[in-house]
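Pasting as-is:
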Amino acid sequence: MNQVQVHKQKFLKHFAAILILTIGFSANAQFYNKEFVGKIYVKQDSEFFTFTATAENLTPTDVNLKYDFIVYKTDANNNVSKSNQSNLFFLKGNDKIALSNAIINYNEEGKIILVLILYDDDGKPVGQDRIELNSQGGNQEFVNEEMTNQQQEAENSDQAAPQDGVILDGLVLEKTITKAGRDFYKYFYSEYYNRQIRTKKNILIEEVPGRFRNTRISVKIDDQLLWQFFSQPKKSFLQEMATTALDRSISYLQQLQKQKANTLTRY
């Protein structure tokens, strides 16, 4: 057996070990994504898929974590290649951040598996996600571990699914009257997009006349006031307010998710 064959066998063993690990995650999903959630989002732009790995902290405590974002590609001849992005990162309490991106050609043939694993300080896996993409002749099929959970949640939901099968994400709505208000909306939405927030709730940014020449800007979800302040034209101030307002919004959305999960569990 030559060195190339030996190297290939070692690589395939490592590949199989990772797959076994991710299958183990799937079988024991109840132990992961409880406090720290790993999630891969998919976006299609023209000829490419962009896969964004994210981490979300469901606790109020700041933590240091590590992530592995691994991409395996298997071509028609069963040749396997691997790319891995790994790094330490800091995650604030009740925060959500984008970790890394992987860009894949829409017409690429073969099987592609993307795995995201989050580790705590002790190296123990605490969050994970896995997406499999099969592509043949330009036709793509996605398989996601969380599909079963999403379908079950839809069945338990009081709200019927739309007849066309399309579920729309919530919107960030703007009712501003000054340039400062519009700038705040721009900074808020930029953070909202970069952190890959996904919610069915609409977020309203509203600006009304305030004291003297200042206006008052508020951020609401379902008429629930989450943050408000008197505006200033200074860019750094508006960016700081946008970050704070989004942190409050994420924390509130997480509370709603926990309340819904507790309600479903009781019934």
